[in-house]
Amino acid sequence: MENHTNQLIVKGINEGLMLILPDGEWEVVCSDIKERINSQSTFFKGADVYIDVASRDLRVSEIADLRDLFGSFEIRMRGLLSFSEITQKNAKSLGLDISMPQKRIKKGKKPDALNPNEGSAFLVQKNVRSGIRIEKEESIVIVGDVNPGAEIISCGSVFVWGKIKGKITAGANGNEQAVVGALFIENSQISIAGIMRIFTKQSQNSNGSAPLILKIQNGEIVADNIKS
């Protein structure tokens, strides 16, 4: 997800449009959305939209009103992205996606967790920007940051030699041996083999420059040597 400001941001994504809502009073934000759509009605008409509200807590009625607002302009609200568990729960109750849709990865042989001395990995040597989704069956190594609104999906492990502020899915085909590694993790949703954990504050390894390693243990995601 994006760092939020006092301005409504509209971005084109593969699935349609992403609206990143500004901070401020909810009534004012909704008024800004209506004004923006009115000024660009041809652009928005018939679009599928995903809404990023960051950590804002929204009631079911507020989400439903927002969906109805878009519907009045013939715009389909498909999903609501938020770090707030309250907002996620309420959005799901209305049948909305709470994460960006992803292609189904076929179940097959589970790749080994990434070992630097064995096998192969998909290497990305740059920051992964908002709206970008990388999906691979092999493990993924990123030399750079995973920015808010970016998504990484792997059947193996995911290592980020930088900061994770986006969404990471490792072990996408059920591989419980997969791990996620990063130098820093903040405001991120991490999933391993279908088990999810949300990080709302910056975390790093207590051993300074060493990466923080996330893995499944006793049915939940745990972090080795975490320092928050």
From TrEMBL:
<dbReference type="InterPro" id="IPR005526">
    <property type="entry name" value="Septum_form_inhib_MinC_C"/>
</dbReference>
<dbReference type="GO" id="GO:0051302">
    <property type="term" value="P:regulation of cell division"/>
</dbReference>
<dbReference type="GO" id="GO:0000902">
    <property type="term" value="P:cell morphogenesis"/>
</dbReference>
<keyword id="KW-0131">Cell cycle</keyword>
<comment type="function">
    <text>Cell division inhibitor that blocks the formation of polar Z ring septums. Rapidly oscillates between the poles of the cell to destabilize FtsZ filaments that have formed before they mature into polar Z rings. Prevents FtsZ polymerization.</text>
</comment>
<dbReference type="InterPro" id="IPR036145">
    <property type="entry name" value="MinC_C_sf"/>
</dbReference>
<keyword id="KW-0132">Cell division</keyword>
<dbReference type="GO" id="GO:1901891">
    <property type="term" value="P:regulation of cell septum assembly"/>
</dbReference>
<dbReference type="Pfam" id="PF05209">
    <property type="entry name" value="MinC_N"/>
</dbReference>
<dbReference type="InterPro" id="IPR007874">
    <property type="entry name" value="MinC_N"/>
</dbReference>
<dbReference type="GO" id="GO:0000917">
    <property type="term" value="P:division septum assembly"/>
</dbReference>
<dbReference type="InterPro" id="IPR016098">
    <property type="entry name" value="CAP/MinC_C"/>
</dbReference>
<dbReference type="InterPro" id="IPR013033">
    <property type="entry name" value="MinC"/>
</dbReference>
<feature type="domain" description="Septum formation inhibitor MinC C-terminal">
    <location>
        <begin position="124"/>
        <end position="222"/>
    </location>
</feature>
<feature type="domain" description="Septum formation inhibitor MinC N-terminal">
    <location>
        <begin position="10"/>
        <end position="75"/>
    </location>
</feature>
<comment type="subunit">
    <text>Interacts with MinD and FtsZ.</text>
</comment>
<dbReference type="Pfam" id="PF03775">
    <property type="entry name" value="MinC_C"/>
</dbReference>
<comment type="similarity">
    <text>Belongs to the MinC family.</text>
</comment>
<protein>
    <recommendedName>
        <fullName>Probable septum site-determining protein MinC</fullName>
    </recommendedName>
</protein>
<keyword id="KW-0717">Septation</keyword>
